[in-house]
Amino acid sequence: MANNKLTDLAFRKLKPLEKEQLIPDGGGLYVRVRPVTEGGAISFRFRYLNQGKQIWMTLKAKSLADARKERDNYKSMAKQGIDPVTEQKLSAERARATQLAEEAEIARLQALTSVDGLFERWAATDLQQRKDFAEVQRMFTKDVLPVIGSFNVQDIRKGHVTDVIDRIKRRGSVHTARNLLKLMRQMFKFAVDRDIIEFDPTASLSVSKITTKNTERDRVLSQDEIKLLTQQLPAAGLMPSTECALWIMLSTLCRVGELSKAQWKHVDFDARTFFIPIENSKNDKAHTIFLSDFAYAQFQRLFTFKQSETWLFPNSKNTSHVCEKSITKQIDGRQNSTVYSNRSKANQALVMPGGKWTPHDLRRTGATMMGNLGVHGDVIEKCLNHTQENTLKRVYQHQALKTEQAEAWRVLGERLELLTSGNPNVIPIKRVI
């Protein structure tokens, strides 16, 4: 190193003058001190020879120590035939390219949507209008979002989806797995339609192969089982209101969800009707049920247990209706359910010879009994409030058949009255051909 190398003390004492100063530090390094009129800033310059030509370049260093390291690095380059100025420009371009790449990656990541974010957008856009919004939200919150919610939607593959489904299947909830796969498919299709993702990761997944086949239930309680139910209920430990609910569903063919959400304003004791508004109906069709004497008596009995001025079946806080699954869980819990078997002394109180049954089976049972009593199929469909599958009939046949429906509910009620009366001489009805 040259003898004219600056000492640390000499460097610290450098002061700006009227003119610019260029003070050598040896090895081609110079300390440049701007004049007072230009602010007196200190920088570092390096001088070297390239093919016999003297070249000056400004270094990036901010301290003398760093400047010396930078000088030594450039001197080494020069000895290898590498032009330091060119290398400095290339280095700056590489740094800029790296910066641009990092900025592009940040922008790409910011543009990505997490599964959590996708679900929020789907819920706000499509699910808000659905009657099952609360249930879908509960299912995703429980089983989907904890597993893949933090993942970018663009990174989701079918393996991630099957992981969610397999976790549900391992706990024995195959039907929940089936329904959730369908819902996830709806959500990812929503993402495809909005160009959030290019391909639906569930597209190649078979619902029946990945989960279970959709088995259509055909459970119908026999007349002997209905008589047995009358005997079993007192020992089942159900709430009296739940007992009423069972008989109401059987005698009116209403759905458990429709009954769970019912309000007292929907029951007209004078007109002897039970009205199911559009917002409570599964198929968005308002429905009026004409109450038989049997059904009317159950609503009257339920009224004696009245716990709310609004709801037939209020929740524990009396702020809304009971959970739509409440009645089903109570019935399931009296048929040796693994969920309730350790908590209920009556966990087999409602076991039937024909096998497990659900509240929805009561609706099917009532409809079957109507058919056996000679009620025409079209009338039964009206009583069930089914949507007509035949397009032509749906468009051109608008007759309400109110009189026929009222008669159908009446004959069903009379039969149920006989079956639940305790009379052992009731003869089972036979199907009318």
From TrEMBL:
- Keyword set, alphabetical order: DNA integration, DNA recombination, DNA-binding
| Tyr recombinase domain sequence ranges | 216-410
The keyword Phosphoprotein is assigned to this record: no
Cite a single Pfam family from the UniProt record: Arm-DNA-bind_3
Q: Which Gene3D superfamilies match?
A: 1.10.150.130, Integrase, DNA-binding domain, Intergrase catalytic core
User: Belongs to which family?
Assistant: Belongs to the 'phage' integrase family.
Q: What is this protein called?
A: Tyrosine-type recombinase/integrase
Organism of derivation: Methylomonas rapida
